[in-house]
Structures are given as structure tokens and as C-alpha cells.
Amino acid sequence: MRYRKLGKAGFMVSEIGYGSWGCGGDWWKDACDADSITTMNRAIDLGVNFIDTAANYGMGHSERIVGQVVRGRREKVYISTKVYPKNFNFVPSPGDSFLEAYPAGWLTECTENSLRNLGVEQIDLQNFHVWVDTWADYDEWKEEVQRLKEAGKIASFGLSLVFPLEDPHVPVKAIATGLIDACQVVFNIFEQDAAQKLFPLAKANDVGVVVRCPFDEGALTGRITPETTFPEGDWRNDYFRGDRKREVYERVQALQWLVDMPDVESLPEAALRYILSFDAVSSVIVGMRKLHHVEANLRASDKGPFAPEVIERLKAHAWHHNFWV
Fold first, then answer.
1. How many CB atoms lie under 10 A from the CB of residue 167?
2. CATH number of the domain that 131 lies in?
3. Closest CA relative to residue 54, chosen from 22, 6, 15, 77
4. CA torsion 299→12→68→130, rounded to 10°?
5. What's the structural domain count of the chain?
6. Angstrom distance (rounded) from CA 202 to CA 234
7. Is 127 inside a domain boundary?
8. Which of 15, 62, 130, 257 has its CA 20 to 30 A from that of 103?
9. What pLDDT does residue 234 have?
10. Which parts of the chain have pLDDT scores under 50?
């Protein structure tokens, strides 16, 4: 496992982090607490020291699982969590109310709840779960961030950015406040916009970048075919509805040349190594609820980045699609 600095937060975090959305168990109907605990511990055994969660993943359930595991370890494991918008608007647009999403005191209230769920005294990285950059003009959030840092409740603060990453959501003004230590963003072989829209900005201001959705919600695992099924009630039934599984399958088949490279074990490995080829990236968080997923994904860090000519060739595989709508 290799480690990178998380921007101004200053932490050295593992290139591969553990994404615990699936541990919440509400959207993922095949989630199992025992599997989550086992795989999280195994990931830490193999060098992972960064775990991402959120207050609304199972409405605290994911945080409680993460806290249980981390408190049982001797190693320092950095925890990142998120404050969900009080109005539950996860796709805010320009003009949407900041005070409806994050009213005064909401950041502090949610931070206190997360501290209780996690069973820790300090959150290493607290984030707003969504962001519109005009919201940087409000002073309420800036004052709360400063108070929480001064009180030792949070060590650093960041933003989880809306997908797709359109100009109103690029945090130019927020980063200019000096209060943003890291940003979390969707970035993968299909969704490449962050390389131009966020990475140069982050590097210029020493802001860490945490990449989420490296496998495009499963599309880039190579395991989705037109015949794939998901458990009843699982959110992926809607996400991959209609003809989308066929679209994904055909796009993935066009990436077979990656897997045919002599030093590439699988498409998921290639997907992770693509992301880690960008030096703006601090860590890429991956959902890993099976032991063989942990061990396979962590080997991507050992393999190292791709050559520049591979990254250049992959530009042709960018695919702007928003299956959330």
C-alpha cells in the first residue's frame, strides 16, 4: 500500500480507502454487518488507513459499524464522514437555498450525532454532502467550521461535490475561503470531467482529492451483463433500468484492451490504477464487502500508475451519462 497527503489536512492516507456506503444496509439489500466488519478489518490489516462514511448511510448505521471497527484497532485509521442536507436535496441547483440545506447549527448538530455514532472524540474529515458554490458567500458555515475545529470536534473540513460536476458546483469560491482541506468527487474511466474542472484547482491550493465511484456504481467491474439481476428492493434495479445494462456491457467490452495488457489482472484493477495515475488524487474509496474484493482492489496500489500513453488513450472512452435521472 502506498500513501498520499490529504491536502491541507496533512494526513498521509492510503491510496485505496474503504467506502462504507454499502454498510448502511438501506440501499444495498445484500449488505451484511458481519461481512462489513470482516472486510473492513482485513483492509486495515493490509494497509488501509482511510474510511469514508456518512451520517445518512443507514441513518447512522454505517457510522456505527465504522466506529466499532476503528475503536478496536491499535493503528490510526482516519475517518471521513458527511453532513447530509437537512432538506434531503442531494442534487441542489444554483438558486437553491443554502439555509434550507444547511441551516445555522445543523453542521454542529450533525457533527455531534456522528461523534456519538462513531464513538470517537474527533472526526478526522467532516464534509458537507452536497455543494453549490454560491453558498460560499454565507458566513454561518464558515463560523461553524472554525468553532468545530477550535473545539477539537473536527480536524479538517471538506466538500462532497455534486454529480455531474457542472460549473456551479466546482468549489472555486469555497476553496478561496481557505477552509476547505479536501474535496470528494466522482471520477473514473467513464466520468473524466474532474481531471480538468477540479484537479488543477485542488493542486494549486493544496486541497486533497478523494475519488468516489471508481467503478461507476459497478459498471466498471466488468461483471454487469444484459442478464444481470439485483436483489429485490436494491437501488441498482432502478439505476441500471431499461437498456442501461446493455449499454454498460458494450462500453466495457470496448475496454478489453486494458485487461489484455500484460501487467493488468482485471478491469477493476485497471479502473483503480487509472485514477491513481493522477497526482492530484489523495485516495480512492472503494466499497469492499467481500474478502476477495479487498485483496484484489488493494493490489492496484502495489501495481502503480499507468503510463501517460495509456491515460491518453483512455480519453476516448469518456462517457457522459447520468443514470441517477
1. 9
2. 3.20.20.100
3. 22
4. -100
5. 1
6. 35
7. yes
8. 62
9. 87
10. none
